[in-house]
Amino acid sequence: MVRWINNHHALIEYAVWGTCAFLINLSVFTVFDVWTPMNYQLANAIGWFLATTFAFFTNKMWVFATHANGFKALFHEMWSFYFFRAVTLLMDIVILFVGITLFKGNDILVKLVDQCITNVANYFFSRWYIFKTVK
């Protein structure tokens, strides 16, 4: 068991910090979607931005523990992170549209399913393309 934990340390930390980002995204979405007349896609975009910013710093510092040498390297990591998160934001938008607008699903339940799918994609993008130096 200890060996498995040591071998999957980044995945475990991603799950912990990813859950925090997930809760930020879901909470912001819920507050704006349920308690204001805001369109669900705009509520989603605000939640995405806040959760993505939180996730960048936690992924960089604790999950993948990369140490960018200089501003150019830091900018490249940040640009890559937001680029790939924007790719999964497109998935997010489509899943919400299909689930909420087309199938008339419950906004929060659709968002939960959506987050499970996009969080898996986010992990692989972060692990394989963005933060290549892993502790």
What does this 3D model show about the protein?
By secondary structure, the chain is mostly helical. It has one domain. The chain is 84% helix and 0% strand. The protein contains five helices and no strands. The chain has helices at 2-7, 9-35, 40-63, 71-102, 107-130. Helix 2 runs antiparallel to helix 3 (40-63). The longest helix has 32 residues, at 71-102. The protein is globular, with a radius of gyration of 16 Å. The protein starts with a helix and ends in a 5-residue tail after the last helix. The mean pLDDT is 89.
Question: Descriptors for this entry?
Answer:
mainly alpha, single chain, globular, 5 helices, 135 residues
Number of helices: 5
Let me know the largest β-sheet: none
- H/E element string? HHHHH
Tell me the helix content. Answer: over 70%
Write a brief structural summary.
This protein is mostly helical.
Element layout with pairings:
Elements: H1 2-7, H2 9-35, H3 40-63, H4 71-102, H5 107-130
